[in-house]
Amino acid sequence: MPNDYSSLHPIILLTVLALFIIMLDIFLPKKKPAFLGWLVAIGGLIILLIDWHSPDAKLWYGLVNFTSYSRAFDTIFLLTLITVSIASVAEEGAMSFRGEYYGLLIFSTVGLMLIASSGGLLMLYLGIELTSMCLFTLVGFAKREKRSAEAALKMFVIGAIASAVMLYGISILYGVLGSTQFDRMSLAVAHLDAAQSMALWLGVAFTLAGIGFKITAAPFHMWAPDVYEGAPTTITAYLSTASKTGGVAALLQFILLGMHSALLEWTPIIMLLAVLSMIVGNLVALVQTNLKRLLAYSGIAQMGYIMVAIAGMQATNGSMSVASAYVYLLLYSFTNVGGFLIAQAIADVTGSTEVSALKGLHRRSAPLAFGMLIVLFSLGGIPPLAGFVGKLYLFAAGWSGGQHLLVLLGAIVSVVSLYYYLMVALQVYIKDPEEESRITVHSSLSAAISICVVATILIGAYPRPWVELGQYAASGLQRDSTMHIARLKSDVCVRSFGSVPIAPLKITEK
Amino acid sequence: MNLSDFLVVSSLLFMIGAYGAFTRKNAIAVILSIELMLNAANLNFLSFWRFLHPSSMEPQIFVLVGITLAAAEAAVGLAVILNIYRDFGTINVDEISLLKG
Amino acid sequence: MNSIDSHLPFLIMSALTLGSALVVVRVRNIVHAGFWLLPCFLGVAGLYALLQAHFFVVVQVLIYVGAILVLMLFALMLTQDVMNPNKPQTNRMSLPIGVFCIVFAAGVAAILTGHQWVNSNAVILPANVQTRQLGQALIGEYALPFEIASVLLLAALVGAIVLAKSEKEPAPLPLPTLAALPDSKPE
């Protein structure tokens, strides 16, 4: 059913949920916990179920495509929204605009879902901008904190520049290719000599700069550590997982759908991003003393590993790259949200997000210490945990794509990265605490942390279903690609695509 | 006048905006410069529309999106800057550096 | 239809646009920079007129000049005392970045003019038909982007109000109100 508009329901319902929460908050007593976060979580769960039951569809001549790819990525976005919302309940009492907080958080998820289901650069760009616009505000949400205001300014300035650069890049791509719909773009690229067309390169480079900002791949990562440190920690958790996942989803669509017919041309750019991200992220993380900054740099490195898999995309038409990137993003979402939420739980008591605040954590709260250990080991890629499975799959995808040197470099820097993860674990388990007082965690926050930690263990122990989910996601992108090739072969494209109208509109002169 | 002339104007406008965005100390001046960059992108779209694809709707939609974005960015940006002004008493981007990096 | 014959209007409009854009990024007095944005936006509107994008001429003037610029000027006048106009308004990197931008602009312009554009010979529709087509597209094929753009504006408005509103709750440190700001400014 290619024209089933019911596929739009998840996006519409999510928007309605945001408006409902904003309005509901007006009628609720202030300064009392209202458990709005749980309401958002339940709403998100219902929408997730509806999403899984809505049909595949290609609406408005492919303006948006609802496929297994978009459904799988929506799952990551909604699950992150759910965990972050549950964790935010702990902060509700101190918040003066909690309705707007959840509303903007949901709006940004709407933007992310639009990215995953976009069939062209128009919806992709709108989705990216909707997400960024909400996150600018959310980063500055802790208005009594000077750092939060500064983080918002930094993210806004760099984000706005990135969005302007990306729009300029899209305009050039439009001029060169005659369309911003992925299928038409791919068709037009096939007729150009991609290596010779400098204008195409320019457009791709500018567009990738905008996407690079979202996924904090080096060299577009400069803003991330400062913003992560200054933002409210729940928002940092969201920013470092869901927002990055959206960026990777956009990158995969842009490269594998839009630039599909010239995949090899773009591999060097991806390789450059991979090398820079892995090296910069891991080496700078070695000297960090703040837990949030450390996780920020570690996140940059993780994006580098994903780039390794994407760089191997020409093998098997990118399906293994997409599947492995998806699995990694899924587990990374749980692991990293868990890490930031534990940092939040500790900061609630000690008022500090420094690594030294973790000293002797196991004596102050054994469950938190255990959760931190799982998160660190998973990020470091130590065998039984999710991170190991995910990284292995990524490197396998890179290896089968012929990126042997990149995989080797990835393996080496992964070993280096163990150093800083283990240093934190050392603080947690070996060092003596400065204070003996127990750390008590708000029940909602501990529920969110438990979800993340259990998911991290579960994905590591039973990787099979998640890998299948990744392949399911890849099949959505894949079917589209093969469709393009089929069309490319059958349709010799006699028309000069210079003058193809996007959709003939009937004009009735009165 | 053909397409190339318009493209030269838009690329110059874009780079003037980029120059301002990267060098200006005043946060509001940075937003002004970003508006220039967005205008350059819009000019590009409309030039391509006029000379290459006059029957296509896409570039016009993109220009509308670009203008919407400029309005939204102006609103959010000024609120962010007002927030900074209240906390720091300055809107000089160079002086606001609590976060090391 | 491949070229526009009116050279003089094009030269005037592009000179107006680029000249005032340069003033915007270089002038020391920030309020002047805001006011110089006006001729720049009008110049762009003029270029749109040359491109026969009539609807966007009106939109450019109404939204950019009428709304965005007024908002900017409001904020500029609110904060103009903060930055001393006698001090340099650009950071230390301004010279290298300037050189880089000139080189980059030359490169981009060279690439774009060097590309083989396939000009179309289609007729540009008259303004009323163009606008009707755009309207039909916005409620038809492009209804979703239109709606999402509205959600974007709504989210931006909600966000801007939240950030700009001063907290009424007893804050640990009394935040200066807007009226008190000029007194608390640094020399």
List the helices and strands and how they pair.
The complex is a heterotrimer of chains A (510), B (101) and C (187).
Chain A: H1 9-27, H2 36-53, E1 57-59, E2 64-66, H3 68-88, H4 98-117, H5 121-139, H6 146-177, H7 182-191, H8 198-215, H9 223-230, H10 233-258, H11 263-285, H12 291-311, H13 319-350, H14 361-364, H15 366-380, H16 386-400, H17 404-429, H18 443-461, H19 463-490
Antiparallel strand pairs in A: 1-2
Helix pairs in contact in A: 1-2, 1-4, 2-3, 3-4, 3-10, 3-13, 3-18, 3-19, 4-5, 4-10, 5-6, 5-10, 6-8, 6-9, 7-10, 7-19, 8-10, 9-10, 9-12, 10-12, 10-13, 11-12, 11-17, 12-13, 12-16, 12-17, 13-15, 13-16, 13-18, 13-19, 15-17, 15-18, 16-17, 16-18
Chain B: H1 3-23, H2 27-51, H3 58-88
Helix pairs in contact in B: 1-2, 2-3
Chain C: H1 7-26, H2 30-50, H3 54-78, H4 94-114, H5 127-139, H6 143-164, H7 181-184
Helix pairs in contact in C: 1-2, 2-3
What does this structure look like?
The complex is a heterotrimer of chains A (510), B (101) and C (187). Chain A has a two-stranded antiparallel sheet. With 510 residues, chain A is mainly α. Helices cover 73% and strands 1% of the residues of chain A. Chain A has one domain (5-490). Chain B is mainly α and 101 residues long. Chain B is built from 3 helices and no strands. Chain B has helices spanning 3-23, 27-51, 58-88. With 187 residues, chain C is an all-alpha fold. The termini of chain C are far apart.
CA-CA gap between termini of chain A = 36 Å
Strand order in the sheet with the most strands of chain A = 1-2
> Uncertain spans of chain B, ≥5 residues at pLDDT below 50?
none
Compute the number of helices of chain A. Answer: 19
Class from secondary-structure proportions of chain B: mainly alpha
Shape of chain A: globular
CATH topology-level name of chain B: Helix Hairpins
Q: How many strands, which pairing sense, and closed or not: the largest β-sheet of chain A?
A: 2 strands, antiparallel
Q: Specify the helix fraction band of chain B.
A: over 70%
Rg of chain A, alpha carbons:
22 Å
The secondary-structure class of chain A comes to mainly alpha
- Number of helices, counting only DSSP H or I runs of 4 residues or more of chain B: 3
What oligomeric state best describes the polypeptide chains here?
heterotrimer
**What's the architecture of chain B, going by CATH?**
Orthogonal Bundle
Can you tell me the number of structural domains of chain A? 1
Sketch the topology of chain B as an H/E string, one letter per element: HHH
